Amino acid sequence: MMRAESMGGQRYRASYGRYLEDFTVGDIYEHRPGRTITESDNIQFSLLTMNFHPMHCDAAHAAKSEFGQLLVNSGLTVAIVLGMSVNDVSGKAIANLGWKEIKLTGPVFCGDTLYAESEVLDKRESKSRPTQGIVTVHTRAFKQDGSPVMDFVRTALIAKRGHGTGD
């Protein structure tokens, strides 16, 4: 969530993310813009992470598979969807506390555009950190045609208003 906060007079500063107080259980954030994944993205990520599986980098091999084409590396898909959610979910986070139940529910191919949304499942104050709280969200990702490709639950430690690093 990008917005501008007044610094006084006619001066404004961009503000990125949400404070703990800005989350409400049940809210759904649609993460935009979407992200189209290119063949270059897929090859570079696969090689960077030393994942040389032929389904990600050998088009001739992938053409013989049930998919008939290269699959986007699922690590890249997770990273992109997570990144898409930062603006709304963890822009004010002190730390990510974990991901669970990561489900890859559909194939992603080069040229697909991903969209994502996150629903706030839980919000509570930290028991050991009085200026922070814990937020849990369920993030879902879809391709351009609306077909689901992934979902996961993520928990983050979020600053309260007036206690973030940019305050």
UniProtKB/TrEMBL annotation:
InterPro entries associated with the record: HotDog_dom_sf, MC_hydratase, MCH/BMMD
SUPFAM superfamilies with a match to the protein in the record: Thioesterase/thiol ester dehydrase-isomerase
Domain of life: Bacteria
GO molecular function annotation: lyase activity
PANTHER family in the record: BETA-METHYLMALYL-COA DEHYDRATASE, MONOAMINE OXIDASE-RELATED
Name of protein: Hydratase
Organism: Caballeronia humi
Organism lineage: Bacteria, Pseudomonadati, Pseudomonadota, Betaproteobacteria, Burkholderiales
